[in-house]
Specification:
It is a single chain. The chain has 170 residues and is mainly α. The chain has helices at residues 8-37, 51-75, 79-93, 100-106, 111-115, 118-131, 138-162, 166-169. Helix 2 packs antiparallel against helix 6 (118-131) and helix 6 (118-131) crosses helix 7 (138-162). The longest helix is centred in the N-terminal third of the chain and has 30 residues, at 8-37.
Length: 170
């Protein structure tokens, strides 16, 4: 028997998706430069320096949630169906297709649900850095950073505690 750290499997997925993200980022930069040379007014701001921090937060959030879900799906197989549904629902609660300001204007009763979603803060941060639109606050940044680190550490603990039983339940 050879020891293989099982945490490498979710980490491998995150790293490969970060590689894909890098390729997509290069394409975005090419289009960004194209529109600048065509005379469009695009104004990134100084918060663009936080771009690597946002990428790390996004990776930690995804890795933490992924490790938690993968640890739970080994025991509860039906959770896989729920995760597919929850991912679609999470897209609409994360302000992916619309800005946060629209939710606050049109549905103020539900704006708190979108506003305190850590993914919303990451998406709005990217919008603010690259397009200079959207909402950026340092409290939202700190909140999202804290949630990302907490979820990653919680996912790592849950994954490490359940990895000993993976073969028994699979």
């Amino acid at each position: 028997k050879v020891y293989f750290p099982r945490v490498m499997m979710p980490l491998k997925t995150v790293i490969s998706n970060l590689f894909k993200f890098g390729i997509q980022l290069l394409i975005l930069i090419v289009f960004y430069l194209y529109f600048i040379f065509r005379g469009y007014v695009i104004s990134p701001n100084m918060h663009l320096l936080l771009f690597p921090v946002y990428v790390v937060m996004m990776a930690l959030l995804g890795l933490g949630a992924g490790m938690t879900i993968s640890a739970l799906t080994t025991k509860y197989r039906d959770l896989t169906v729920l995760v597919g549904f929850a991912t679609t629902l999470l897209m609409y609660v994360s302000a992916v297709p619309y800005p946060l300001v629209e939710v606050e204007n049109k549905m103020p009763d539900w704006a708190w649900l979108v506003k305190y979603n850590p993914l919303t803060q990451i998406i709005e941060g990217f919008r603010y850095m690259i397009l200079d639109t959207g909402v950026f606050t340092w409290t939202g940044f700190a909140y999202t950073f804290a949630i990302s680190v907490f979820l990653f550490l919680a996912g790592l603990i849950i994954f490490n505690r359940t990895e000993k039983n993976f073969l028994d339940t699979v």
